[in-house]
Amino acid sequence: MGSPYTVQAHIHSLNGQLAEATILEKRGDSSYIAEFNGVKCSAIYNPFNGYYVDDKFGIIRDRQPTRDEPCK
How would you class 17 by CB atoms within 10 Å of its CB: exposed for 0-12, middle for 13-18, buried for 19 or more? Predict the structure, then answer.
């Protein structure tokens, strides 16, 4: 599965409810980069529970913030 694909995943911001997310890239044995609601974030795969997307604390930014940018 090299190209992006859509899965039903447990979403952190939805308290673990299932929703559709896009898996963008595999990083390790069970580590992935996913996208949910336009946010790129980390995800894991568990063969018993499926995918879990962390769109609260696992957000991946495309660039580092500059010194003068406010914290979000």
Answer: exposed
Q: What is the pTM of this model?
A: 0.80
Question: Which residue, 19, 61, 25, is CA-closest to 43?
Answer: 25
- Say how far apart CA 72 and CA 23 lie, in whole Å: 25
Give 18-40 pLDDT, tens digit per residue. 999 999 999 989 999 999 999 99
Q: How many CB atoms lie within 10 A of CB 25?
A: 13
Sign of CA dihedral 44, 1, 36, 17: negative
